[in-house]
Amino acid sequence: MARRDSPNSSISASSQSATSITSGDSDIDWPFGARLDTLRHSEIRETAYEIFFMCCRFSPGFGSNKGVIAYVGSTGDVVEAPSSSTPTRPAVACRGGTGMMTVTSRVKTTLGLRAGRPPPMRTMNYSMGLTALAGESPYAFMPNSPGRITLPSFPNKAKRPMTSAEIMRRQMRITIQSDNMLKKILQRSFLGQNGRRAESFILPLELLRHIKPSEFSDNQEYHQWQRRQLKILEVGLLIHPSLPLDRLNTAALQFREILLHSKMKPVDTSKNSDIMHRLSNAVTALAWRNSNTVRGCHWADGFPVNVHLYLALLKSIFDMREENVVLDEVDELLELMKKTWPILRINRMTHNVCFTWVLFQQYVITGQLEPDLIRATLNLLVEVANDVKMQAMERDHNYAKALDGVITSMQGWAEKRLLDYHENFNKGNVENMGNILSLALATTKIVVENIPGMAAGNTPGLAERDAAAANRVEFYIQRSMRNAFTKMLETGAPGHIDSMIVEVDEDPGDILIQMAADVEALAVVERENFSPVLRHWCPAALGVALLTLQGCFGVIFKQYLAKVSSLSSNLVLVLQCAGKLEKQLMQMAADDSADYDDGGRSSVLRDMIPYEVDTIGAGLLKTWVDERLAVGRESVSRAKETENWMPKSKGEQFTESVIELIKLAKVTVNDFFQIPLMSAREEMVHDLADGLESIFQDYANFAASCGTRQSYLPVLPPLTRCNQDSRLTKLWNKAKPCTSGTDTQQVAVAGGGPVASTPAGGETRRPRPSTSRGTHRLYIRINTLHYLHHHIHLIDKSLSFFPRGGTSAQPGPSPALHHHHHQLYLNRRLTPATHFDLIRASIQVSIQRVSEVAAYRLIFSDSENSFYRGLYADDVAGCRIDNALSVLKQNLKHLLSVLTDRAQPPAMKEVMRATFQAFLMVLLAGGPDRAFVRSDYEIVMEDLRQLKKMFCASGEGFVPEDVVDREAEVVEGIVGLMSLPTERLIEDFTIAACESSSAAEDQRLLMPPTTGIWSRSDPNTVLRVICHRNDDTANNFLKKAFQLPKRR
C-alpha cells in the first residue's frame, strides 16, 4: 500500500530547519527578546498560517479590496498611496490580482519599491491544481532549487489567476492537502457559530479535537504534528504568557504534566478521553485569564510569541523565486494579515515596527543586493518616528520592548559597518554605504530624541558629541580611518603580505617608506569611493579623513625620527616619501575644499601639523634630465639619416643605432639615481621616464616604417566561368609538365646570380632560398624591435626599482650597506615594470606589423613563382604542393638563421598565416589557370595537411600544433566546399546571398561584394568556389545568374 502524503506538514518541513538571522553576512542581533527555541521556523510558519486562515475564513477567495495599507498612520488612520478617482483597482481584472495580468501595488509605490519584476508565473489550471506538484517534492516551490517545478502549460485547459488565498498558501509553503484539511476542520468547528469571533477560539485546541491519527500516514507523523500544537500552546500560555503566571497555578501544573506525557507518545484526543478533557480544561483556564486591562482569550498574544507569528506572516510578501523582491500582491496580503491583529494583539504601531524589521532583515540576509528594500525601510522609519513622537503616552510595555529592540539592532548593525567602512565597503557596493548611513542616522535620531536612557548606553560617541548628522558622520570617518590605519600597520596594506610591525633585523625606514605609499593609496580610495557619499551629510568629509590620516602617519613618522641619529640613504628616502605624502594630502584637501568658504578650507589645512620636509634641487635635476634626453633625441635623428638595416657582418643580428640608443638610456638611468637630490628625484623620475618613452617611441616608429602587407598582395582577377575543355585539350594538359615550384631564376640572399631550375644530367637540384635582400632587411628590423622591447623592459624595472632601493647620499658606504644594495639588485627582476607599459605595447604592435609585412613579402613576392603562380596551374594532379613546400622549407631555415629566439615564434606564425592566405587565393582567386572538379578535393586536402605538417614539425621556432589547427580552420572549411556537389554549392550560395542582401525569393540574386575575408559562410567565397568548378551545372548557373564571361 502506497504511503500517503501528509496533509498537515509544510512543503519544506522535512528539509528546512530554523532560519538563523546570522546567516551569511547578516550578523544582526535579534531584537524581540527571547527566541522560541522549542519551535522550528517551519512550525512557527505553519501555526501562523493556521491563524491567518482562521481569521480570513469568511473572506471569499481572500480577494477583498478594502483598506489597502502601506502602514498605519500616526493619527490612527490607514495610510494609503494616492489612488485614482475611480473606485476600481487599477490594472487588475480579477480578484487576487495575480496571474498573467499586471498588478499595480500602491504599497510598493508608497514605499519606493519597484513593481513588475520578476514576471508573474502564478496561474492555476482548473482541471489540475497544485496538489500533484506540491506532493512531488519538498522543494517544488523553493527558488533556485534543483527540485523546483515550473507549472506546465496546457493550451487546451482554461487557466485562472491565483487568488490571494492560494498565493498566501504557496508563500507559506503549505500543501494543498494541509490547506484543505484546515478548511474542513474550521468549517466543522464553526458550524452553527458564524457569529463567534475568531479571537475567542483557541485554534490549536480545536485542531487537536478534530484531527484524528487516521488522517496521517503513520503514528510518528501524527505525533510530530500533535507536538507542534502542544508546543505552541506551551510557549503562548506557559513560557511567554500575555499575563503574569503563578508558578503554582493548578491549570499550569496540569498542562505541564500533559506536555511531559506527550513527549513519549501521542496524547489520546478522542472525545471520551480523560487526558483530552483535562488538557481542554487546563488550556481554557489559562487562555481565559483576565486582568483589569486585558480581557478575552489569550493564547498567542504574549510577547514575543505574537511577534514571531506575525513576522512569519510578513515574510510571505517576498517572492519565493527572487527573495529580495516584494510581491505585487502585497496590498491584499497585508490587508488580510490585518485580520490577525486581534488574536496576536498587534496594533498599528507594532505593525509598523515589525514591517520595518522584516524589510530590513530581508535586505541583510539576501546579501544587501536590493537597495529598494533599505530605501523602503528608511521610508517606514519616518512613520515609526512619527509614532514614537505622537503616541508616546499610549505605548504599552510590549511595544516599547519591540521598538527598542528593533531600533537598537538596526542601529548597531549599521554603525558596526560605518565605524570600519573601509573594511566593509568597496567601489562596487559603495551605494549601499549611503543607504546604511541614512539608516544609522535615522535610528540614532529616534534613540536620542524619543527613547530616553538608550543614547548613552547603545550609541558610541554620543557622550562627547551631539547627534547632528555632520558631527556623527565625522565620528564615523575618524574611527574608520584610524581602524584602517591600524590594520595597515599591523597586517600590511592590501596587496602586501608583510606586516608593518618592525622585526629585529629589519630597517624601520623601509617599512615607513612603504607605509607612506599605502597611506597615499588609502587617501585616494577615500576620495574616489567614500567621500562622494559622505559629503551629502558632511561637506568636509574628505578633509576630516585626510586630517585623520595625516595625524596617524605623523605619529609614526615622529617616532621614527626620534630613534635615528645619522643621515642614511633610507632616512633620505623616508624624508622624501613623507614630504610627498604631505603634499598629496594637503593638495587633496585643498582641491576638495575649493567650493567651500575660506574658513572651512583654512581650518583643515591649519589643523594639519607639517612634517617639515624640505624639497630641494628640482631645477638642477630637471636641467640635467633635459640635457640627457636631448642627447637621446640627437641619436635617433642620426639613425634616421644613416641606418640602412644591414649589419656590417653576417653574424650581427641588430643595428648599431639601437645598441647605441639602449646604452645611452641605461647610462642615463644609472647616473640619474646616483644624484643625491632626493627631494626632487621622485617627481623627476616620471619626467625622465616620459622623455625616454618619447625617444623610444620615435625610434620604434622609424623601425616599423616599412609599408603594409597590402602592397604585396596580388590583384584579384575578375570572376569568370570555367571553360568546358575538349577531350584533346584535356589530354594536352595532362601530358604537359608542371612548372610549380621551379623558378627559372631565384635570387639568393646575398645577391648571387640566377640558379638553374634543373642542372645538367637531369638530376633535380635542391631549391635555394628565394629570400630577397628586402625581406632580409625586414628580418633585421624585427630583431631590432625585439632588442628594443627587451631592454626597455629592463630599464623600466630599474626606474621602478631604484625609488624604493635607493643609493647612499654619502661617499664611501660601509661593507654592510654594499651588501644590502647588492641584495636589492638581485631582487630587481621581481620588481614590476610600470613606466613603459604604453611603449612596450606599441612595440609589440610594431613587431607584429613588421612580421606580417615580412611574411607577405616572403610568400607573395619572393616565393610567387613557386606558390601563388605555380600551384595547381593548368593541372591539379600534376602541379601539387611538393615543390612549393621544398622552397618554403629552405626559406624558413633562412628565417630561423637570421631571427633571434624571441623573434622566431611570432614571425613563423605570420608566415603561416600568409601561406594559408596564399593557399586560399590559389583556390578562390587563382585566375584562368585554375579549374577544379569535385574529385580534386582529396588532392587539395592532402596538400593542406602537408602544409600544416610543415609548420607543426617539432623544433625551435615552429608554431604549436593547436595554433596551426586554429589558424587552418577557415582554410579547411573552404576546402571542404570543394567536396560538395555543384547543386549543393549553388543552393548554399543562394541562401547565403539572400540572407546577406535581404533579397526576396522573386528578386534577382545580387553579386556579393568581395571583402577579402574568406569564410565558408561568406556568399562571395562560395561563389568563387563555383566559379572555379569545371562542370556544366556551375557554368550554366553563373551564366544565367550573373552573365559571367568564359575564361580566355
UniProtKB/TrEMBL annotation:
Name the residue ranges with Low complexity bias: 9-23
Which residues belong to any copy of the MHD1 domain?
Answer: 572-716
Quick one: where's region Disordered? 1-24, 741-773
Q: Which domain of life is it from?
A: Eukaryota
Q: Which Pfam families match?
A: TPR_PATROL1 (PF25761)
Domain MHD2: residue ranges: 878-989
Query: What is the official name of this protein in its record?
Result: Protein unc-13 homolog
Q: What is the lineage of its organism?
A: Eukaryota, Viridiplantae, Streptophyta, Embryophyta, Tracheophyta
